[in-house]
Every structure is written in structure tokens, then in C-alpha cells.
Amino acid sequence: MLKGLLQAFTAGVLLAASVGSANASSITVTGIGYGYTNVPMLLNGSTTVTNEYAVQILVNVGTRPYIAYCVDLFTGIGYDTYNTTIGNAMSYINGLRLAWVYTTYAGGVTNNDQAAAIQLAMWDIVHDNGDGLAAGNIRVQAGYSPTVVNQANSIIAASLGQTSYNATFLHNTVISSGAPAQTLITAYAAQIPEPSSMALMGVGSLLTLFGWFRRKK
């Protein structure tokens, strides 16, 4: 989640990997919750620090609010309404492991450190298969908040070999252009009504300031 222009990522591949019946719907990103917007990270071997939004993302599915986390670090999303395909934990790489992280830790978040640690752990699991935040393509700058980094590394270690189906993956595209937006993970799918059984009301006027959760230049 980095500030800047939305990049075209491989959302088509992700959606093609969906298993079971995927439901068309829409979501609205309404804000951010606990976490930090300035986590210094080194990405893809770069020695240049980029400040990342390791935060909860607040969304509405229809009219119901949910707390979500970003799955794909290198694709953006902002305050807007998106076309969404609802997928299960098998619809994303390491999705079963991510679902276990979400169901095990997300419900107990009460502060910024915990939320940031969950988000960092998820990015590391997705992009580096959980090799820790000091190695691989997803690294946190040395010396940054030992509390957050240690919590994240503990989550990564605990998640090894764990699986769960009790989370929902929201595969998003921009309504106006069909461009890919971040895939998000949120609450158990059974809590989200089928699109055919709920009236998805149009959200009022969209925010004119997007505040993309991408790289902060």
C-alpha cells in the first residue's frame, strides 16, 4: 500500500485462480484504522527506503462495515468504490495461511503496533513465503520499532504450516477503467450476504481526493 499511481498488477491471474463460486459485488474503502502510515521498508532489493501504510483498511461490503488488510503490497487502492469478486482462502497464493493469520490475530487488535505487525506479516507471507522481515523482497529497515518487527516475525513463524478457510478475499478492480486494485482479506465469507440477496446501494458521492495507499515519495 504505497502512495502514488495505481500499477497494473496480475489481478487477472489471481481471479483465474479462484476456487468455488465467486460472487460479483462491490466494496467501498471508507478509511484506515489502527496501524502506521510510515513504516520504512526496502523492497525488491532496493536500498532506497519507502514508507509504507501498514494499517487496517476500513471497507463497506454493501452497507456492512468490515476491517480488512492488504494482500498485495505492490498494487494500490484508495478511497473509492470498486467492483469486487469475492473469493475464498484458496483464491490467492498462500491464502490458507493468510486466512489463519487473519482469524487468529485480527480480532484481538487494540493498538497500532498489533495492526502493523499483522499487515507486515501478511506481506512477508505473500511475497517472500514467510522468510522474516530481515530477508527477501519485503524487508523492514533495520532499527525500526523492535516491538512491531518482533510481533510480525512471531506471527510469521507461528503461521508456518497453518491453514484456515475462515476469511474472505476481495479481488478488486476500478469501476471506471477495470484496472486492478489491491486484493484485500477480511472476515469470514459466511458473514457477507450473497449479492443476489442484498441490495447493494450506490454509495453517495465519491471522495475526490484519492490518497492512494502506495509509495510516499
Give the biggest beta sheet.
6 strands, antiparallel, barrel
Structural class of the helices, strands and pairings?
Answer: alpha+beta
> Would you report the number of β strands?
7
Contiguous low-pLDDT stretches (5 residues minimum) are 1-21, 192-211
Domain unit count: 1
- Name the helix and strand elements from N-terminus to C-terminus, one letter apiece: HEEEEHHEHEE
Strand content: 25-35%
3D shape? globular
Helix share bin: 10-25%
Strand order of the largest sheet: 1-2-3-7-6-4
Q: What's the Cα radius of gyration?
A: 16 Å
The overall pLDDT, averaged over residues, is 82
Specify the number of helices: 4
How far the N terminus sits from the C terminus, by CA atoms, comes to: 13 Å
Outline the structure in words.
The structure is a single chain. α2 packs antiparallel against α3 and α3 packs across α4. Strands 1-2-3-7-6-4 form a six-stranded antiparallel barrel. The chain is 22% helix and 28% strand. It has one domain. The N terminus is likely disordered. It has 217 residues and is α+β, with helices and mostly antiparallel strands. It has four helices and seven strands, in the order αββββααβαββ.
